[in-house]
Design a protein that fits this description.
The structure holds 2 protein chains of 2 kinds.
Chain A (H helix, E strand, L loop, with lengths): L20 E2 L2 E2 L2 E2 L5 E6 L4 E7 L3 H16 L1 H4 L2 H17 L1 H12 L3 H22 L16 E2 L2 E5 L5 H14 L3 E5 L6 H12 L7 E3 L4 H8 L6 E5 L2 H10 L6 E5 L5 E4 L5 H13 L11 E5 L3 H12 L20 H16 L3 E3 L15 E4 L6 H4 L6 E7 L2 H9 L6 E5 L3 H10 L4 E4 L18 E2 L4 H5 L3 E2 L11
Parallel strand pairs in A: 1-5, 7-8, 7-10, 8-9, 10-11, 12-13, 12-17, 13-16, 15-16, 17-18
Antiparallel strand pairs in A: 2-3, 4-5, 6-20, 11-19, 14-15
Helix pairs in contact in A: 3-5, 4-5, 5-6, 10-11
Chain B lengths: L25 E5 L5 E6 L3 H20 L2 H17 L1 H12 L3 H19 L5 H5 L1 E2 L6 E9 L2 E5 L7 H12 L3 E5 L6 H11 L8 E4 L3 H10 L5 E3 L11 H8 L5 E3 L2 E3 L2 E3 L10 H4 L2 E9 L3
Helix pairs in contact in B: 1-8, 2-4, 3-4, 4-6, 8-9
Classes of the chains: A alpha/beta, B alpha/beta.
Protein name (chain B): Aldehyde dehydrogenase family protein
Keywords (chain B): Oxidoreductase
Pfam families (chain B): Aldedh
Chain lengths: 489, 295
């Protein structure tokens, strides 16, 4: 098959200025850097900046600042005024979109076309959407007639490295729209866009303490979620850590929403438009190098079209461009960290050892940085680790089924329940499948679509609570009567 | 000579049947004033596990039943409950130490509570669901679905009104339930089982285990095939550590409805207050479906 060579089309990194070191953003100002660690560009392992490791005392200060803001200026502000701050933030994100896109690609390793066309515009859209809710909450059906929904107070938010800015927006926008204040911890390997967002808060004149950002590893996250003056936790990350958080708040008044792992089935019936389905399968698993909790990582294809689908998939994968994330033509960028690369490698090797057949297109991977080729695993059985464990990488496990009932049984045979896909031309079958699949999001004849108005979140061990849409607001309000400060909570 | 009355044997209600506890154990149930009322089965860990199996088996069918059908079945429950009014008044009066008149008020409220939830079944999706106007050519709709098998620790004090107030919202949306009854006042729960068994509620949709709460609650909270747990019944239950139960529930990320807490201690809610949607909302999952629009 002929492939075309593209001349390099690198995006310029001059649009963004990265400081050599960063402190925390607490009470409206940056603190002096301390106990720093490096954040790398995963595409070449160069050090982008040194960021600070927040200890319990730093977390204390951030939570205290958030509490003061909640009980002070922010708590007294009308919904309309809160909304106007969020509109401002949305606009500044749009104005500085290119800067954010470049910074995110440098820190995360994902292709510039994704940060430019998806991560950053969708983040801005989340602020724009939630801005409008701030003064309309009584229309959202959050409380019983006659009761009023109130903010929780101080919200601790811990976000992952796969969509650093977008996850920040998913967390901060609804929290502020409903009147809470926030202490957010970005992932250890991707802190830079959150620190740049702190500058946006300053430009927007957001009152001090409403948004606080502390950086660090899991110890910082633990100190934050276990802080006694935190009222609510919003966490996106692994199911393992989600369970630890759920355990840690047992018996307290702290609320939590958890958006955790997934092992989505993408079900392709024999009557599906195969070419469209192949595009959807590729987007479903290779978007963001497969480092997506809702990635369509289990392809369930009807047995009689298995060979055709796999042949077309292989052909399509040969046209994917893997390489420099800053190049505008790049389809697949770098894996976010060495740790993640090792996890992918270990799981795929386990799949091959258990009997799966592995295939990758010929592609030259850069010698520096963290890279994994797009990979197909065929002949996968339900019991293989690659069919049950979340790989979080550009790896598609292919399984087959004969009847719709078998597809449903296999699709639901997982502890997770975040997302699922269905490909068929038959409308009644789409709706039947959508009813049967135990997953929070079902994409039919499409995959990996996201929108601020559309609730996102899982069934079973993929966590609880929804983010986005009217449903996402529920997690950030309470309808129980207010307790005086210092009372038992 | 006066006639000797025929007493009822109070048993468990699992999978539509009335077995004794597999453990062979029973315990004496006393009235509020300390008189012997009956021997109730003392449910065990194994009974709870059997109940979970029955609830899981019933889930698919009950969740797939039309909301209209579930509403009719729940209304039928209210009808049959009303028909057993005299029996419930006796049991509630004896167990809760109420006058016959006060007990009648409780039973009437319980019937009305079931009617209230019967009317909700086909409105839940309309009130909790909606179309989402996404920025693209897609049809996008969010609607609630039942969470699955729900463990319910029924209130200790309010043995009928409290009981139906926690069970009805769980099954209204299509969940199935494993209910641990009030430990000291289990008799109305068993009689409610008899009502459910004769009200077209499919076997396994509601399973009732009379037991010592502290003994079996841990197994229910830790069970991997239970999707959610209602901890209301920890209030006033002897030897129950609700934080420990919530921690056990984290093992498979169960949805947890915490007890109402006042002064740091779980308290039983006021069951005469208007219920609101909280108990329905606690045990549904929002599913969002996308489909492209185009020619």
């Amino acid at each position: 098959m002929p492939t075309f060579d593209y001349a390099p089309a690198p995006e310029s990194r001059s649009v963004v200025t990265i400081a050599p070191t960063y402190g925390f953003f607490i009470d409206g100002a940056f603190t002096r850097p301390k106990a720093t660690f490096a954040t790398l560009n995963p595409a070449d392992e160069s050090v982008l900046a040194e960021v600070s490791q927040a200890g319990p005392k730093d977390v204390d200060k951030a939570v205290a600042a958030a509490r003061r803001a909640f009980e002070g200026e922010w708590g007294r502000l009308s919904g309309a005024e809160r909304g106007k701050y969020l509109f401002r933030i949305a606009r500044i994100l749009q104005e500085r979109a290119r800067e954010f896109a470049v910074l995110e690609t440098l820190d995360n390793g994902k292709p510039i076309k994704e940060t430019r066309d998806f991560d950053v515009p969708t983040a801005a859209a989340h602020f724009f959407y939630h801005a409008g809710w701030a003064d309309k909450l009584e229309y959202a059906g959050l409380s019983a007639p006659g009761a009023t929904a109130r903010p929780h107070g101080v919200v601790a938010q811990v976000i992952p490295w796969n969509f650093p800015l977008l996850m920040l927006a998913w967390k901060i926008a609804p929290a502020l729209a409903t009147g809470n204040t926030v202490v957010l911890k970005p992932a250890e390997s991707t802190p830079l866009s959150a620190l740049l967002f702190a500058e946006v808060c300053q430009q927007a004149d957001l009152p001090a303490g409403v948004v606080n950002i502390v950086t660090g590893d899991g110890r910082t996250g633990q100190a934050l979620v276990e802080h006694p003056d935190v009222d609510k936790i919003a966490f996106t990350g692994s199911t393992e850590v989600g369970k630890i958080i759920a355990r840690s708040i047992a018996g307290t008044a702290k609320k939590a929403t958890l958006e955790l792992g997934g092992k989505a089935a993408n079900v392709v019936f024999d009557d599906a438009p195969i070419d469209q389905a192949v595009e959807g399968i590729v987007g479903g698993i290779f978007f963001n190098q497969g480092q997506v909790c809702c990635a369509g990582s289990r392809l369930l294809v009807q047995e009689n079209v298995h060979d055709e689908v796999v042949a077309k998939l292989k052909r399509r994968l040969q046209t994917l461009r893997v390489g420099d994330p800053m190049d505008k033509n790049t389809d697949l960028g770098a894996i976010n960290s060495r740790e993640q690369l090792d996890r992918i490698t270990t799981l795929v090797d386990a799949g091959v050892a258990e009997g799966a057949e592995r295939w990758s297109p010929a592609c030259t991977l850069p010698t520096k940085g963290f890279w994994y080729p797009p990979t197909l695993l065929t002949g996968v059985a339900q019991t293989h680790r690659v069919a049950t464990e979340e790989i979080f990488g550009p790896v598609l496990s292919v399984l087959t089924f004969r009847t719709p009932q078998e597809a449903v049984a296999k699709a639901n045979n997982t502890a997770y329940g975040l997302s699922a896909g269905v490909w068929t031309e038959k409308g009644s079958r789409i709706l039947w499948m959508a009813d049967q699949l135990r997953a929070g999001v079902v994409w039919a004849n499409t995959f990996n679509r996201f929108d601020p108005t559309s609730p996102f979140g899982g069934y079973k061990e993929s966590g609880y609570g929804r983010e986005g849409g009217r449903h996402g607001l529920e997690a950030y309000v309470t309808t129980t009567p207010a307790t005086p400060t210092g009372a038992t909570r | 000579m006066s006639r000797l009355d025929v007493r009822k044997t109070y048993k468990l209600y699992i999978g539509g049947k009335f077995p004794r506890s597999e453990s062979g154990r029973s315990y004496a149930v006393q009235s509020a004033s300390g008189e012997f009322l009956a021997n109730a089965s003392m449910g065990s860990r194994k009974d709870v596990r059997d109940a979970v199996v029955a609830a899981r088996a019933a889930f698919g069918g009950w969740a797939a039943a039309t909301p209209y059908n579930r509403g009719q079945v729940l209304y039928r429950v209210a009808e049959v409950l009303e028909g057993r009014r005299a029996q419930f008044i006796d049991e509630v009066a004896a167990g809760e130490g109420l006058t016959a008149r006060a007990a009648a008020g409780v039973v009437d409220a319980a019937v009305d509570r079931v009617v209230w939830y019967a009317g909700w079944t086909d409105k839940i999706a309309q009130v909790l669901g909606n179309l989402n106007p996404v920025a693209g050519p897609y049809f996008n709709v969010s609607a609630p679905e039942p969470t699955g098998v729900v463990g319910v620790l029924a209130p200790q004090a309010s043995s009928l009104l409290g009981l139906v107030s926690v069970v009805a919202p769980v099954i209204a949306s299509g969940n199935t339930a494993v209910v641990v009854s009030s430990a000291a006042r289990p008799l109305p729960a068993v009689t409610l089982g008899e009502v459910l068994a004769t009200s077209d509620v499919p076997g396994g949709v509601v399973n009732i285990v009379t037991a010592q709460t502290a003994e079996v609650a841990t197994w229910l909270a830790a069970h991997r095939d239970v999707n959610a747990i209602d901890l209301t019944g920890v209030a006033g239950a002897e030897g129950v550590d609700w934080a420990g139960l919530e921690a056990e529930a984290a093992g498979n990320l169960k949805r947890v409805l915490r007890p109402q807490v006042a002064g740091g201690v779980p308290v039983e809610p006021d069951w005469t207050a208007a219920p609101g949607l909280e108990r329905i909302r606690a045990f549904v999952e929002t599913k969002t479906v996308w489909h492209p629009k185009g020619l």
